[in-house]
Amino acid sequence: MAVMTGRSSTWVRAQRRPKKALFLSSPIGLGHARRDVAIAQELRKIHPDLHIDWLAQHPVTRVLADAGEPVHPASALLANESAHIEDESADHDLHAFQAIRRMDEILVNNFMVFNDVVDETYYDLVIGDEAWEVDYFLHENPELKRFAFAWMTDFVGWLPMPQGGDAEAELTADYNAEMLEQRARYRRLRDRSIFVGNPEDVVDASFGAGMPRIRDWTEANYDFAGYVTGFTPPTDDERAALRRSLGLDADDLLCVVTVGGSGVGDALLRRVMDAVGPARRLRPELHFLVVTGPRIDPGSLPRRPGATVRGFIPDLYLALSACDVAVVQGGLTTCMELTAAQRPFLSVPLENHFEQNFHVRHRLANYGAGRCVRYAETGDAEALAAAIVTEVAREVRYRPVETDGAARAAALLGELI
Q1: In this predicted structure, what is the pLDDT of residue 280?
Q2: Is 166 helix (H, G, I), strand (E, B) or coil?
Q3: Cα separation of 143 and 145, whole Å?
Q4: What is the pTM of this model?
C-alpha cells in the first residue's frame, strides 16, 4: 500500500492557485471608495499575487477608473443606490434611516447579483465596506457563504432623529435588535469585523431599551484599524507647492466648497455661491473652488466672479490640504481629510441624516475639528459670508489623525487569505 507523505496534491494545487478577492464598496458618497482603494493597495503589498475584482456602481466606479482598478462586468447589473438616495432628498434634507428602509428592492437585486458572481467565480475573500445587503442576507442565508468574509464600517448603530418621536426610536431599536440577534446566532459568518476608526470614535449611546451600549458592544465585537485617509498630510513646503499648482499667489486665500460624491448637496452649493460676493467684499483676496462631484452638473450652478466651478476631482484631498478654509457637507471622509490636513472648515450636515448629525459629529468632537453650522443658518448670504471669513482667520490645532490606517486594515484582511 502506498504511503502518503507531505501535503495532499489538492492542497498543493490550492496553494499555487492565484488568490482572488472581491471588494464591495458602498456607493453612497465617495468616502468608502477612496479608503477602499488605499486598503486594496496595501493588501497587495502583503499578497503581491492577489487579484482583486470590484463589484461596484457609480460613483465608486469613477474613483476605481482613475485608480486603474478592475471593475467586474456584473457591476452593470447593480441597481443604483445613489440615485435612490438622491430621490429621497430635498433642499439639504435627507432622512437617511427612512431612505434605507425604503430601498429593499434595490438591496435584494444587488445581493442576487453578488450571489451570481460568487457562484461563477471562487473568491478566497469577500470584503464588504458597508455592503449592507451582503451582510444582511448572508446572515439570513448562512449556507450561501463559501468564502472568507470581512465586514467594514465607520459607524455602528441606527439612531433616531428627535423629529421622528417614539415611533422612529422604536424602529431604530428594532433594526439594531435584529442585527444583534444575527451576530449572536452566526458569529462565524463574519471572519473579521473592522471598524474604520478607534474605540472612542464610537458613540456612547444605547442600541435601544434593554440593549447594550453601542461602544461597549463594538469594542467586544470589532477590530479597530484606526482612521483611513489614504494620504499623508503635506508638509509646509509641499502645501506651498500645492497652492502654486492651483495658481495661487502667496497672499491669496482659497475656500474649497464640496458636497461629496452624491447629488444631494446641490442646495448647499447654491447658497455658498450666493455668499461668494459678500465674502469677497470682506476679503477681496478670497477665491472659491466649488466642486460639484460626479453626480451634479457643474453647468447647473450660477457663475460668480472669484469662483471656479469644477466637477469630479480625483485628488480632491490635495486641494483640501492646500485651502485656507472649506465649506462642506457633513460627510465623514471630507471632514476627516480636512482634519488630517489641519484646515479650518464649516460643516453643514444634512438635516435628518442620523449618521452625519450623530456619528460624524461625535467623531469630529473627539478631534476638536470643524465648526458645525445648521443648514437653516446658511440662508442669509451675508451671515454665511461672515462665517467663512471668520474661519479663514481661525488658528486650528486638531488632534492628529493616524496615517497608517490603510496598512492596519490590510493587515487584518491579509490574515484571511
Answers
A1: 98
A2: helix
A3: 6
A4: 0.93
